[in-house]
Amino acid sequence: MSDKKIRLKILRQDSPTKEKRWEEFDVEWHPRMNVISALMEVQRNPVTVDGTKVAPVVWESSCLEEVCGACTMIVNGRVRQSCTALIDQISPNGEPITLAPMTKFPLVRDLIVDRSRMFHDLTKVKAWITLDGSHELGPGPRQAPENQEEAYPLSRCMTCGCCLEACPQVNDHSNFIGPAAINQVRLFNLHPSGSMHATERLEAVMGEGGVADCGKAQNCVEVCPKEIPLVDSIAQVSRATTKHMLFGWLLK
Amino acid sequence: MAQAKGIRSESGKVRRVIVVGGGLAGLMTVIKLCEAGVPVDLFSLVPVKRSHSVCAQGGINASVNTKGEGDSPRVHLEETVYGGDFLANQPPVKGMADAAPGIVYMLDRMGVPFNRTAEGLLDFRRFGGTLFHRTAFAGATTGQQLLYALDEQVRRFETVDVEDEKGIVVKGEKMVRKFEFWDFVSIVQDDTGRCVGIVAQDLKTMDVTSFPADAVCLATGGPGIVFGRSTNSVINTGTAASAVYQQGACYGNGEFIQVHPTAIPGADKLRLISESARGEGGRVWVPKDPKERRVGRDVPEGDRDYFLEAKYPGYGNLVPRDIASRELFLKCFHEKKGVYNDKTNKNELEVYLDLTHIQKDVLKHKLAGILEIYEKFVGEDPYENPMRVFPAVHYSMGGLWVDFERSADGSLVAGSPRNQSTNIEGLYAAGEVDYQYHGANRLGANSLLSCIYAGMVTGPSMATYRKNMKTSGYDSPKSTFDKAEKRERAKYTDLLKLDGKENPYGLHKELGDAMLLDCTIERHNDKLDKVIAKIDELEDRAKKVNVLDTSEHANRGAQFVRHLNNMLVLARVIAQGARNRDESRGAHFKPAFKDRNDKEFLRSTLALYKGGEKGRSEVTYVRELDYNLAGRSVHVTDSVDISLVTPRARKYEQAGAASAAATGALDGKESKKSAAATPSA
Amino acid sequence: MEQKAATSRRAFLLRKAHSLTGIIPVGVFLVEHLWTNSSALGGRAQFDHAVDQIQKLPALPIIEVFGIFLPLAFHAIYGIKLATEARPNPIAYVHGRNWLYVLQRVTGVLTLLFLCAHLWEFRVQKWLFGMTSGAFYDTLQAHLAATTWGLQLYALAYVLGLGSAVFHFGNGIVGFCLSWGLVVSRRAQRVVAWSAAALSVGLFLLGFSTIVFFSTGTRLLPTGQSALEPPCPESK
Ligand SMILES: Cc1cc2nc3c(=O)[nH]c(=O)nc-3n(C[C@H](O)[C@H](O)[C@H](O)COP(=O)(O)OP(=O)(O)OC[C@H]3O[C@@H](n4cnc5c(N)ncnc54)[C@H](O)[C@@H]3O)c2cc1C
Prior knowledge:
Chain A is α+β, with helices and mostly antiparallel strands and about 250 residues long. Helices cover about 35% and strands about 15% of the residues of chain A. Chains in contact: A-B, A-C.
């Protein structure tokens, strides 16, 4: 066993009404370690560097392979999935690692925030195919492989919140819906049956805080862990909404 | 008493059923219930979109036969049963195989971006235990895509109004209400033992609350975390299944735990590299020379030992998982021929999984999802270098025992309230948490299917049960709920007071290490005895844990202690079941009892909970069960329904061995005749 | 319900209008303005002629008020509102586009400040205090050549104002194209971004040489727009 240590600096808060505080922990390094396994070490021995016994840090995680979207946090100042944050990469020379909760969502505790607004937004944009029923109705519409190749990357969005966290337009002074939901509009409007309800989805992002609020900072694509072409999606939806504004609202 | 009728209970509340768990099985159950007009409360530990089903990579089986290979539901049934070493009841498997094409079509209609053929049809790939292209897939993140599709449909039902019998909208009530970040704690049973609701805990406020329901479905997934680290999500502690087991639900075939041959070792998780890698042509090998120092890609063809292909020419790299895992284990652990590591100077427990001979754009198109995982977590390029992998605990064939009602054609009676019912009236189970579809070993890509199929069966089954029930769960005496709530609240308060010396996370690690070492690929009775002794010890020590966290808000420590206790109980079911079964069957392999023993063990393991001495858990194994359902008593035994495919020896050396129907079809013979071939060894 | 839809439509339409007014008429005016002013590079006569041509346009006040001033005011005021809603984070997320986002807002404000001063300097003087368009040339020359503590602060402010305006315009074109959905594909996005950058640089050089000419008398663009051509501003 090596005696190499990793230092974690964690921004903690017991509940939304309590004070924020930084706590530091040293944990033993091991190969292929990531932020989650480091946090697990803290759980097994929740003692800060100055020897104080504290409650273990809490965080959200589930799949640990970057498909569930649960473990988003701010690692060294930048939002990302913490499961793929490999210690050797983010702290190559043993630099302290800072962990903080996302700032654009209401805090629950420590590194846990409440992202329910993102799920509400999915409802708002009607991110679904309006199915006649789950009974047998034969195959779905045929689709060209290119269609699938366009849709598939879009449909990998895990609702992790990285794009909202990094977006300067998403904040408590604006009600911008954010890139994730807009991307869903594009995804469903691409689908042969989904497109039958395209207008409803477009209308949903043509209101206050809709697609027009995008500020083109394009941080979303930079931080998206699934490399979803979010800017392209915004551009697509912008085009569709423009058309709908001209031919659906104004010239109708 | 009159029959409970209408949408409202006597007290005027909208009568709902509860589904716990929003993976594929839970969500499909919800959809079917909503379509039957039954409003649902859906509980989940995590937002359902983050359920463990997202992890599934490779695909979902359906014998659509788009490649014209002669695949059919009959072949699918036979191969599934054969792959499961004949331990699965066959009518549900038949139901599943028959329904599979329809299920994949439904998913297609829901917008799952399945890969397509040039003609715009669904593309299918190969998976283990079959020679057919039977697996529909969406890149290498199929589970995620399927889960999202069902999640979207359920989200739609969150916006749909409840209607009463006359079709009049019930104001303010939606078909689905979600309770996310809630931990299921126990069911509520009335005086007759019937399940009339649940107790759950809000993981933000930590409130423990009871909820009435006409019926409850557990769709809480597998227990992989009992083994410490596995390919499962960290939330898969099996806590819910364990809780209802402790309340009297029967647990079936617990000892059958699937170990997947190819995963990446890691400190927090063993990350899966899906079987689809081999389905697309990936090859498993080790260097012939155990001291080979060249990196994988530099080892010439002649110096490689493709040991699966050599031993199983028929199925090659796509033998079922239990077999592949055993062969890998044999190579690395017994023969010490794992990939040699210069730095540690030893043969690691690793073999090569090689895709480098396949064109990069094909890989990108079909497998990017898993290759990305390898790249991100190992930091090597799998397009250029063979991946290094080793087996990991993956799936539980065992789970809550559930019933079925056989139809005349050998399938399931549609809508029978017995289907997917546990032995507790009003409590249903679906998904990986049930024991129903895979016998002693699950074939790849059959689980997503079984989860969705189970949901399709459970929904109507619960709807029938609800329709026929005499009194609504909502009309049980208030004291029933108060009592349950009080009991669980007291238990929780007791947890918060635990201030002993043991660290619960440390105990979990010890449990995992013991289970992983001696209760997985190879099982020896002496070692299993030690595992059981270890569980005794851990149960004792678990009483002296320190809860570590006494916070009243979002307390994860206390919740974990509860899960730990429940995991210990399940661990015993698994280990004890393995100890008792002196044979080898599917994933359960005892070198001392190398053969399958149908005479003694062609039967389901039925475990019932008993509180034992010193507060330890104890298991009682029974051969038969009686349970109540809608006013009648149902009698069942542990015998396996083998009415459709007669058991025969399981051998994968020869191509086509898994399905007589397939070989029959190839030979132009009646499939039925050959199905009845070779009785078991 | 109806009303809600109406109010939410308003937000969308205002955003679209904001992005549109930045290009038409404000952006177009900016180009025209820099072009006209650069006629000074061809000498005073040419400049006066160019200014004169404009003064002779029929219904000039109406064009100025409705065609330029009101859209500009809308663009500015709504822009300020939008800028205050932003929470820039270029330090945490260091990406070119994120910096452009910040600069867009900063230059918007700077341009507005400059514009106010510039309007005071000329328009307000003309309308309220009887400055004639013939005096523009001299005033410009006097102001731009003036030094404060040995520094040509006035000229520097002009350069800054010019820089802000052309940046804001160039980057605004990209934003406009995305916002109106004129470009969608990656390639189109790239093409537009580079073209807008080139346009900005071109406009900056044009304006910069005009400023330099007024403040020092040096012609950076020796040919000017008109050294080779006879003064004929109509050709634009
Ligand atoms: C890495 C990996 C790859 C796989 N690939 C494939 C594949 O390619 N093909 C295939 O067929 N199968 C595959 N499987 C298996 C398959 O993914 C699972 O068996 C299946 O998804 C299980 O679904 P489920 O609906 O039963 O449960 P899950 O998806 O596990 O969902 C369980 C639900 O229950 C909830 N829950 C659990 N406990 C509680 C509680 N106490 N209180 C409240 N809610 C609770 C959870 O929040 C969750 O919503 C794979 C599995 C793994 C691990």
